[in-house]
Specification:
The complex is a heterodimer of chains A (240) and B (105). Chain A is mostly helical and 240 residues long. Chain A has 11 helices and no strands. In chain A, α2 packs antiparallel against α8, α3 runs antiparallel to α4 and α5 runs parallel beside α7. In chain A, 51% of the residues are buried. The model of chain A has no long low-confidence stretch (mean pLDDT 90). Helices cover 75% and strands 0% of the residues of chain B. Chain B contains 5 helices and no strands. The longest helix of chain B is centred in the N-terminal third of the chain and has 24 residues. Chain B is flat and about 50 Å long. The chains are: A mainly alpha (240), B mainly alpha (105).
C-alpha cells in the first residue's frame, strides 16, 4: 500500500518536472508565436475577417503557414475546394512529422495520441523530436511544449484581428526573420555529421528549384522528401 | 465593415474544411506507422525528416529573399553550431538581418 503510494507520488513528480522542462524549452517560441499570430490576425482583418472568424480559424486549423497562404487566397466568391486542397498540400509535411514522432510515443497512453497530434506544429514537433533524440519522450514533456502554444496562437491571432492593421511593420525589428532563424537553429541541432549536411543541401536545393518553377507550396513537400530520399540512399546496411 | 462576431457561413464551412484537411495530415503519419517495425533504411529516412523538412520550409526565406537574409542565416547557423541557446540564436539572426538591411546589402 505505502509502496504503491510512493510509486504514485514519484510518477506525479516526474510528470510535473517533465511538464516544466517542456514548458521551459518552449518559451523561446513565444517570441515567434505571439507576433506572427498577431500579424496573421491583422492580415486576416484586412481581408474582411471578423475577430470571431480569425479565432475560429486559428482554433480549428492551427497551422501558421497554411493560414497565411489561405488568407492570401481569400476572395468572394470563396474558392472553398481550392482553399481546402491547398491547406492539405501545405500541411503534407505534417504527415512526415507525425510518422517520425509516433516512434517515440510508446510511453504515452494511446487514447491521448489523437489530441497530441491535434496540437502538433512545426515548432512543437521540432522541440519534441530534439528531446526524443536525447532521452525518452514522456507525456509531461510533450504537453509542456505543445499545449501552451495552442491558446497562445489562437488568442494572439484574435487580438491581432481586433487591433487590425495598426500593429506596425514587423520587418523593422527583424521579426519577419525570427521564424526562419528559429527553425535554422533547430536544423543545426539535428547535425550528426557530413550526412546531415548532404540531407540539408539536397532539401534546400530541391526546395529552391520547386519554389522557383512551381506555383504554390509544393516546395516544402518536395524539398522535404528529397532530403529524406538522400538519407535513405546514403544508408548502408553494414553500419546498422 | 464586419463586427466582432460576424460569421459568414461559407467562411465557417471553409474554416472547418481546412481544419479537417490539416488534422488528416496530422493524424495520418501516426496511423501509417502503426505496427511498422522501424529499422535500417527506413529508420535512416525517418531520422532525416526533421532537418530535411525544416530546411525546405525556410529555404525561400534564407536562400531566395536577398543578400541580407542569406548572410543573416550564415550568422545564425554559426551561432547554432557554437551551441548558443535557442533564444540567443534567434536574437542574433534578427539583429543581423536588421543591421544588414540597414547597411543596404
Amino acid at each position: 500500500m505505502t509502496e504503491l503510494y510512493v510509486k504514485e507520488t514519484e510518477a506525479k513528480r516526474a510528470f510535473s518536472s517533465d511538464l516544466r522542462a517542456g514548458f521551459v524549452d518552449m518559451t523561446p517560441m513565444l517570441l515567434v508565436y505571439v507576433p506572427v499570430a498577431m500579424l496573421w490576425g491583422a492580415v486576416a482583418t484586412a481581408k474582411g475577417f471578423s475577430p470571431l472568424e480569425a479565432f475560429l480559424m486559428s482554433f480549428f486549423v492551427y497551422a501558421g503557414t497554411a493560414q497565411f497562404i489561405a488568407v492570401d487566397m481569400w476572395r468572394e466568391p470563396l474558392p472553398i475546394a481550392v482553399l481546402i486542397f491547398t491547406t492539405f498540400v501545405v500541411n503534407l509535411r505534417l504527415v512526415m512529422m507525425s510518422a517520425s514522432i509516433s516512434r517515440h510515443m510508446d510511453t504515452i497512453a494511446k487514447r491521448l495520441h489523437p489530441f497530441l497530434m491535434y496540437i502538433l506544429t512545426d515548432e512543437a514537433w521540432a522541440i519534441v523530436e530534439r528531446r526524443a533524440a536525447a532521452e525518452r519522450l514522456t507525456l509531461g514533456y510533450f504537453l509542456g511544449v505543445a499545449l501552451p502554444l495552442w491558446p497562445t496562437w489562437f488568442l494572439s491571432s484574435t487580438m491581432g484581428a481586433a487591433l487590425g492593421t495598426g500593429i506596425g511593420n514587423p520587418a523593422t525589428i527583424g521579426l519577419d526573420f525570427a521564424y526562419a532563424a528559429m527553425l535554422l537553429c533547430i536544423v543545426i541541432g539535428f547535425w550528426r555529421g557530413p550526412r546531415t549536411g548532404v540531407v540539408i543541401a539536397v532539401s534546400g536545393l530541391i526546395a529552391a528549384a520547386a519554389k522557383f518553377y512551381l506555383p504554390g507550396p509544393w516546395y516544402i513537400l518536395l524539398g522535404g522528401l528529397a532530403g529524406v530520399a538522400a538519407a535513405a540512399l546514403l544508408h548502408s546496411e553494414e553500419e546498422a | 465593415m464586419s463586427g466582432l462576431f460576424t460569421l459568414h457561413w461559407t467562411w465557417f464551412l471553409a474554416i472547418i474544411g481546412m481544419g479537417l484537411a490539416t488534422y488528416t495530415t496530422r493524424i495520418s503519419g501516426l496511423l501509417l506507422m502503426r505496427g511498422v517495425v522501424v529499422k535500417g533504411r527506413l529508420k535512416a529516412a525517418l531520422d532525416a525528416v526533421p532537418p530535411s523538412v525544416l530546411m525546405a520550409v525556410i529555404t525561400p526565406t534564407i536562400l531566395m529573399t536577398g543578400r541580407a537574409e542569406s548572410l543573416a542565416a550564415v550568422a545564425t547557423a554559426i551561432a547554432a553550431f557554437m551551441r548558443a541557446p535557442l533564444l540567443l540564436t534567434i536574437l542574433i539572426g534578427m539583429i543581423s538581418v536588421v543591421g544588414l538591411r540597414w547597411l543596404g546589402l
